[in-house]
Q: What sequence folds into this?
């Protein structure tokens, strides 16, 4: 098995059976941001606390990346003919924050705004050193009434 | 304070060319001066910019070392709009009577590949394949279609219209009309947007000569008045390119404030506009920007576009020169192209694209990281 490496430290809890994104909460404004930040974009308050974000939420919007992104900035090294389109979406986590991430699904027929999603950590690319790179992504929840198809 | 008029316009055709970006800018500058009947030595102030084709002020070596103040402007997709606002303010402030605003660019082929650090983002954002403007456009229109019932057919019809308009414009890059089926069945780049629904980075240059309104008839028999030019950055809660998070407490796009400000400053209502140029980075952007700028209500676009109301000959022609879709997007020049086309239309010089009885025009640019510039022009 190829060596695994995280796309970045401090973005999500790992290793974990139930990984969570790490954001910042600004008590003064009630604003939550992701990833962590030192300044509230609403009030410029610099009083921030780390917050672990809910693991489940609903899909707010989505697209499918249909062509290979340029490297850099993309870390993936696959050739254009091996490129697999991947889903990207915004997921609303309670009324706290809407976060952007890759989706584990890329078939438009399986994706719908409002469906329930859950945070997972997945390998998504092989870097220039041949290592598998892990990042967070959102997967449809099997029992979601919208997609209805157990995964 | 003097009012401001546009008394000369010049363009270098958009597309792909052998000339450098800056040379294309110089071609546009010479054409604008010829149109106004002025020499470079008559220009008292210049503002210009490009994103990828060099420092605009270097152009003095091509136009003449007259010693004029020439300020470089760098404001992403609003570079041209920002140059224009700077020129407008210089005249308003009494700093100069004749000012040039200029924008040009020349980008490599393919999608832009920005560096996350330039946008205040951590490296992992780009590493993980999220640093693509195309994804933002796909997700913004996807959400909008879900909320307001815009169909894929309407997305395609925007592209069809803009390519049709481009076919009537000798300065456009893409001049081949395309059918709705061709647009819908093209390669899917970022759901729900296909290849022909997106504009491409390109090349081109535009220059405008501005003058005090009370002196405008010295230069042209038909001055066009720049009634307002307003730039805004994003407010809290707007949905922009390269956002790793959004607030559930949703806010307006910067286009809302920029357009409102431009209409108010001009004392003109959106209903009075004869024609409009709005940022069509992709088909969905044109649709959403129609509502954000106050030209229609959210959701009304479905009927308007299906009925052809935004086509040439319709009630409110939009992107009469083919927009970004047919002209491509040389970032520095794009916003000024919209003004160039508006001036042509208001002066009755738009040929086969001419909108009848055009008296009032509106322009709107939008870009990363959440900026918008709008103008209102009248005769």
A:
């Amino acid at each position: 098995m190829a060596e695994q490496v995280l796309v970045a430290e401090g973005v999500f809890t790992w290793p974990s059976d139930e990984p969570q994104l790490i954001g910042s909460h600004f008590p003064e404004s009630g604003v939550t941001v992701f990833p962590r930040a030192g300044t509230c974009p609403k009030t410029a308050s610099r009083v921030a606390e780390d917050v672990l974000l809910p693991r489940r939420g609903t899909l707010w919007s989505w697209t499918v990346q249909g062509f290979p992104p340029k490297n850099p900035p993309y870390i993936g090294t696959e050739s254009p003919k091996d490129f697999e389109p991947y889903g990207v979406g915004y997921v609303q986590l309670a009324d706290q924050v809407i976060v952007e991430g890759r989706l584990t699904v890329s078939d438009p027929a399986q994706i719908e705004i409002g469906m329930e999603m859950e945070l997972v950590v997945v390998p998504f690319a092989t870097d220039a050193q041949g290592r598998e790179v892990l990042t967070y992504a959102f997967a449809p929840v099997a029992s979601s009434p919208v997609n209805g198809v157990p995964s | 304070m003097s009012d401001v008029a546009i008394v000369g316009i010049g363009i270098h055709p958009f597309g792909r060319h052998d000339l450098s970006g800056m040379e294309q800018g110089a071609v546009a500058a010479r054409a604008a001066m010829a149109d106004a009947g002025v020499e470079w030595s008559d220009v008292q102030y210049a503002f210009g910019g490009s994103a990828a084709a060099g420092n605009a002020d270097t152009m003095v070596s091509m136009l003449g070392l007259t010693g004029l103040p020439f300020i470089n402007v760098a404001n992403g997709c609003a570079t041209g709009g920002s140059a224009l606002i700077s020129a407008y303010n210089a005249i308003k402030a009494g700093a100069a009577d004749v000012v040039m605003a200029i924008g040009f660019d020349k980008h490599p082929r393919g999608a832009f590949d920005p560096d996350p650090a330039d946008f205040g983002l951590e490296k992992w954002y780009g590493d993980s394949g999220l640093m693509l403007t195309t994804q933002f456009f796909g997700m913004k229109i996807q959400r909008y279609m879900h909320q307001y019932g815009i169909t894929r057919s309407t997305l395609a019809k925007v592209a069809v219209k803009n390519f049709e308009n481009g076919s009537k414009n000798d300065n456009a890059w893409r001049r081949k009309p395309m059918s709705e089926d061709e647009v819908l069945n093209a390669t899917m780049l970022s759901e729900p947007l296909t290849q022909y629904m997106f504009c491409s980075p390109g090349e081109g240059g535009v220059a405008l000569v501005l003058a005090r309104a009370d002196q405008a008839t010295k230069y042209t028999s038909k001055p066009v008045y720049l009634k307002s030019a307003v730039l805004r950055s994003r407010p809290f809660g707007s949905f922009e390119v390269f956002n790793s998070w959004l607030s559930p407490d949703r806010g307006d796009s910067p286009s809302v404030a920029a357009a409102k400000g431009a209409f108010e400053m001009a004392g003109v209502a959106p209903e009075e506009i004869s024609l409009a140029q709005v940022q069509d980075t992709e088909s969905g952007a044109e649709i959403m920007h129609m509502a954000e700028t106050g030209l229609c209500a959210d959701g009304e676009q479905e009927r308007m576009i299906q009925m052809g109301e935004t086509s040439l000959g319709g009630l409110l022609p939009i992107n009469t020169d083919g927009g970004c879709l047919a002209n491509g997007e040389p970032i520095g020049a794009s916003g000024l192209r919209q003004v160039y086309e508006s001036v042509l239309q208001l002066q009755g010089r738009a040929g086969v694209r001419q909108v009848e009885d055009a008296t009032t025009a509106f322009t709107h640019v939008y870009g990363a990281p959440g900026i918008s510039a709008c103008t209102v022009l009248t005769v």
About this structure: Chain B has one domain: 4-109+199-378. Chain B is about 35% helix and 20% strand. The mean pLDDT of chain B is 96.
